[in-house]
Description:
The structure holds 2 protein chains of 2 kinds.
Chain A: E1 4-8, H1 20-34, E2 38-42, E3 58-60, H2 66-76, E4 80-82, H3 87-99, H4 102-106, E5 109-110, H5 115-122, H6 124-133, E6 141-144, H7 147-157, E7 161-165, E8 175-177, H8 180-193, E9 197-201, E10 207-215, E11 221-229, E12 242-244, H9 251-268, E13 272-280, E14 287-293, H10 298-307, H11 311-319, E15 346-352, E16 373-379, H12 382-392, H13 410-415, H14 421-430, H15 435-442, H16 446-469, H17 476-484, H18 489-496, H19 504-517, E17 523-526, E18 540-544, E19 560-564, H20 575-590, E20 594-599, E21 614-617, H21 622-632, E22 636-638, H22 644-655, H23 665-672, H24 674-684, E23 691-694, H25 697-707, E24 711-715, E25 725-727, H26 730-739, E26 749-753, E27 759-768, E28 771-783, E29 793-795, H27 802-818, E30 823-832, E31 835-842, H28 849-856, H29 860-868, E32 886-892, E33 913-919, H30 922-932, E34 943-947, H31 951-966, E35 970-973, H32 975-983, E36 989-990, H33 1002-1007, E37 1011-1016, H34 1023-1038, E38 1043-1044, H35 1047-1059
Parallel strand pairs in A: 1-2, 1-4, 2-3, 4-5, 18-21, 19-20, 19-22, 20-21, 34-35, 34-37, 35-36, 37-38
Antiparallel strand pairs in A: 6-9, 7-8, 7-9, 10-11, 10-13, 11-12, 12-15, 13-14, 15-16, 17-18, 23-26, 24-25, 24-26, 27-28, 27-30, 28-29, 29-32, 30-31, 32-33
Helix pairs in contact in A: 1-11, 2-3, 7-8, 14-16, 15-16, 16-17, 18-19, 20-29, 22-23, 23-24, 30-35, 31-35
Chain B: E1 10-11, E2 18-25, H1 31-35, E3 43-47, E4 51-52, E5 62-63, E6 66-67, E7 79-81, E8 84-85, H2 98-105, E9 109-111, H3 115-125, E10 128-132, H4 149-153, E11 159-161, E12 166-172, H5 177-184, E13 188-194, E14 206-209, H6 220-231, E15 236-239, H7 241-250, E16 253-269, E17 276-288, E18 296-302, E19 308-313, E20 318-321, H8 336-349
Parallel strand pairs in B: 2-3, 3-7, 4-8, 7-9, 12-13, 12-14, 14-15, 15-20
Antiparallel strand pairs in B: 1-9, 2-10, 5-6, 11-13, 16-17, 16-18, 18-19, 19-20
Helix pairs in contact in B: 6-7
Amino acid sequence: MQKKILILGSGALQIGQSGEFDYSGSQALKALREEGCHTILLNPNVATVQTSEGVADTTYFLPVTAEFARKIIDRERPDGILLTFGGQTALNCGVELYRSGVLAQYGVEVLGTPVEAVIQTEDRELFADMMHRIGVKTARSIAVTSPEEALDAARAIGYPVIVRAAYTLGGLGSGFCGNDEDLRRLAASAFDYSPQILVEESLKGWKEIEYEVVRDRYDNCITVCNMENFDPLGIHTGESIVVAPSQTLSDHEYHRLREIAIRIVRTVGIVGECNVQYALDPDSDDYRVIEVNARLSRSSALASKATGYPLAAVAAKLSLGYGLDEISNAVTRVTSACFEPALDYVVCKIPRWDLGKFEGVSKQLGSSMKSVGEVMAIGRSFEEAIQKGLRMVGQGMHGFVANSLTIPDLDQELEHPSDKRIHAIAAAFEKGYSVERIHRQTRIDKWFLYRLENIYRMEKQLAEAGRQAAAAGLSRDVLLRAKKLGFSDYQIGKIVLRDSPLAPHDKQMAIRRLRLSLGIRPVVKQIDTLAGEYPARTNYLYLTYNGDENDVAFEQDGRSVVVLGGGAYRIGSSVEFDWCSVAAVKKIQETGLRAVMINYNPETVSTDYDVCDRLFFDELSLERVLDIADMEQPRGVIVSTGGQIPNNLAPWLDRCGVHILGTSAASIDRAEDRQKFSQMCDRLGIDQPRWKELTREEDIFAFADEVGLPIMIRPSYVLSGAAMRVVSSRDELADALKKAAVVSREHPVVATEFLQKAKEVEIDAVAQDGEIRCYAISEHIEYAGVHSGDATVVFPAQKLYYETIRRIKRISRQIARELNISGPFNIQFLARDNQLRVIECNLRASRSFPFVSKITRLNFIALATEIMLGHKVETYGKNFADIDYVGVKCSQFSFARLLKADPVLGVDMASTGEAACLGDNYYEALLGAMLSVGHRIPSKEKGVLISSGPIWSKVDLLDACRLLYESGYKLYATGGTAQFLQEHGIATEVVHWPDSAKRPGVLDCLSGRKVDLVINIPKNNTPRELENGYKIRRMAVDHNIPLITNARLASAYIQAVCRIGADGLSIKSWNEYSI
Amino acid sequence: MEDGTILEGFSFGCDRSVSGELVFYTAMTGYPESLTDPSYEGQILVPTYPMIGNYGVPDECEDGGISRFFESPRIHCAGLVISDYSDHYSHWDSRRSLGTWLKEEGVPGLYGIDTRALTRKLREQGSMLGKIRFGEEDVPFYNPDDDNLVSRVSTAGVRVYGKGRYKVLLVDCGMKNNILRCLLRHDVTVKRVPWDYDFSREDYDGLFLSNGPGDPARCGVTIGHIRQALREDRPIMGICLGHQLLSLAAGAKTYKLKYGHRGHNQPVVIPGTHRCYITSQNHGFAVDEKTLPPDWEPMFTNINDGTNEGIRHRSKPFFSTQFHPEASGGPVDTENLFQKFVDNMAQRNR
Lengths: 1075, 350
């Protein structure tokens, strides 16, 4: 009989739990289906590949919580459940299902590692005891359940100590404490995340080493990969640069730690995959085991991409009872999965931070994770890999050297690293610091520093050559050595042609031409898991200058189509573009062509070895794409499915003669270039909010007078805080320009008229030769002013006038025709009283493509790809406005991890992920989606805190407050809100502002956990309001109390909570919503 | 190279022309161990891992008469060919760079070679002869299989280690020190004898046949001695070349593999079970399982290519492995085989 298996996904992407679980879940589902299992997936993350049609047999877009999982189990009656493929969220959910007896009650077997084993690894005390029994050293650690016990423990161990909360994602609530005071502060917040915390001996400065171990039911164990952190212990591994394999370990050390890892995995009783993390003393062979993750993790995704070993697929098969020797190595197809990959290259993982997007956030790196994504670079020298990686991160760096970056306090930065640490090392070399000194300050192993010094030295050599005779002074030997050290043409151009009047792009092209004329080209190497010992059947490739020969031959038959991927996940560009890229690849393959993928994000499905015909795990830079285009001679390149990175490359590629498929590069440029786009809109009679690009402060004030406040300003050079902001008074404007931005001829500021109380509406569409073939119109719950990536999106739009919809269609048609669009595009509108203004137009897939595709069950990207490949497609006849159900997409925020950041929403995006649910009506879908991004139905034992901001939002929230009151919730309110509600017959308990001495205070209410939901609407931008509001918002986040800062969303959510309630949500799979 | 290929690189070792058999190995760690492994005698080593020398080289020092860090007193391979060299090393235990050590030992090293391309060539065409040539100083090609390498690397005299209960007679055909270290963790006294030593009249509890270089067929003398031991019941264990010699003595045949097994990631399985081990290997010859006499059976099989990885006698306490249970370098998963050997001795003496 066919086995029915439920697999738990990880939900919305958040810091500490990102796209890696789309990779692991997708691989697991594929493996289970290969084995003939019937698969059921629970995951509300609508942007993932795993929730695509044909991946699982049944998909539920519902929250990954024990309650919903139980209801699904009740309906589906699965035989087995997989808990280890959806990160900590799935694991926690599974542990709860196990503890509450649900699994036993329904006879659901946990496949793979038993739950008891997981629980043992998650409880540090149990785990330490177990390690002690098998003679494995762990950091001295004492588990405590109160702050007082924590102090005693710390004194017993001796400071410095590290504090960790059990059962949390990526080290939430963890940190180093040097004294009692530090500890008190940290313990207080750690207890909010976990009833138990651990006080441990600090191993700051030790090397951090990880092993990925696989075990089958026959007790066979292999280690797939080991990894070494570039940054010493003290920086969370998710915040650290990581290399694989380890570089500074002797054979003795490598195999000693390997043996211990295997001993641990056997003792725990893993069946599947497990990650073991060590601290290794840099001055002896002493070690400690610091963490064991009995599940697929970010590290295992990295290990999988680093080695080519399909860890998740293998783990899934092992959980069905196979032995390692029975599974074949999918890369070679002649050897078995029972082996340990041998690498003949080095990979370098570098985190991507977006701390600049947040107001007030601490930029120091520590033991909890803040990065939002990562890149993996492959090379045959460390220098080559790290320089590639630093460019891939995509924050304007050209590699290790030749960046325009100043580090204000170098010693401080070296000793207390921030997200700029690696660049501080470059600055230190520049300042004449020795490797020895930098090592003392950073505790980074000297081997890495010597290698970085090689790069620095080469920069000096290039600069010297440039001083002598510009590019002509560059010998073949020096240029080749620079390329072997990972220098890009752009970087070399910037150094060598420093004094040339050429534009940076022209310098890059000059170096490229010189390089090609000297016959210096990169070679293509395969990642084959066995270092060349056996021939590989798949084409998992990278480019390197440390070699003479290509591993593969290129057909150059015009049947290759290159798809440019989305790069590192970041705020604003995430798993949704991976879904789009994969959808494009599938369609290309369906049409009988060869799909060639370029991407470098190890957390993606698009970089899985078996997704495309050839995978270049390499840079998405002009240089690299041209190199690949030279080799492939492709039919064309798709730039519209990978987000903004490929979109930005389009005009450059076009200029270099690479054929762009679909919408022309010239049209892309007309949409991207503000001036050109505005001129076009003016000519077509399409309204836009008025805007100007200004270079003098007085002109900005004049503009504000002309269009009226508030206005939105977007500086091109930001000193501190977020780049974009809305200012509502002249004082605020002056303040923003003074503190946050530079205004000059080189750094213009774009000022835009800001419409209040305007609805934001989006159209996602696909056109062919300028004619729209399909479209989806969705609306935001929030008024304009909340970034579209943070807004709550409803599809089909529920509350638009027919006239508005008609106008949207008309304008979209005009634009599609004018730009002769062939492919995906997205337009965002402001709508007020049937007046429509275009605020953005992207001639590429947008964030919401997977959302609308999944709700309509029409794959917009597949259709767009067909068009881009030149196939004629019919206009899709169905009107999606008529469908019988609703989809709502909510944003996931990660403020809890971003210490000190103000969790308020603004015009710059702050969310790290999204989830969507379907419902028979609007409120049902909204409730499901909100519960999927961390909200919980407030309990009636606790109350709701309301601080409702300006008068209009008080009015907006009135009905909702009444509903809460009538539903029996206790309401707490700050002064003005309490008074307003009182006047309208709603009784509340008044709580006083944080800066007031009166009691009860709002902060006591929060720290005493009297409320289960906080609604805090920012009133205005006066310092007092900001400070008070900030304290409330931050405290809510730090105490893990759900927070809503937008009146319209709060109002809609409260309606949903009171009208539907958790039990009112229908448990229906995706298939059951028929169009 | 034998096929006319010429590759150019940069020297980081001794500037001396040498020749030998080119072989690749896929281990990512363990160059001090590999370079001093006598089994590499006469071979030019090509590590597939590109960056070599990262953690330097420790100083020679002894512990109980055995080198602490090395597998023999000197570097045995003829030369080292790599992609990228770390002239700056970093490790608390190291005192010199790899280049310095190579120079001290008179062994050439080249970097800047596309070792992956070279590996693929050796994989496709098989191990071949090669030489490292400095300037005009040419040397003829040299095939180590033509020589009795074992006689070059075996110990000169007899030496006794340890003071344990069971007497192990260890035939040194080019032994790695870690075999000694592993044995001495048990209650044994080890008498180490040269490869051609006639041990038929010796008083011992167990016979140990070490690893070593080259074609096993060249060790006829040793094979003759082993054949006599097979008539008795005293336990025997062999590793690598020792495994091949035991097989030849038992009547099986050996053959040369196309490009051998050299690395730390070779999977083996116990035939008829799902029990697998990851092993360290370094061999160019293999035992032809089909030629095993009926009173012998395969003990381990290579999962990747199905070649023989170990044999055992069906009734007597004789076994041997093609892989290296002593590791160093490589995984230590099969070290318990030494325990098995000791148990065999204990059982017989009970």
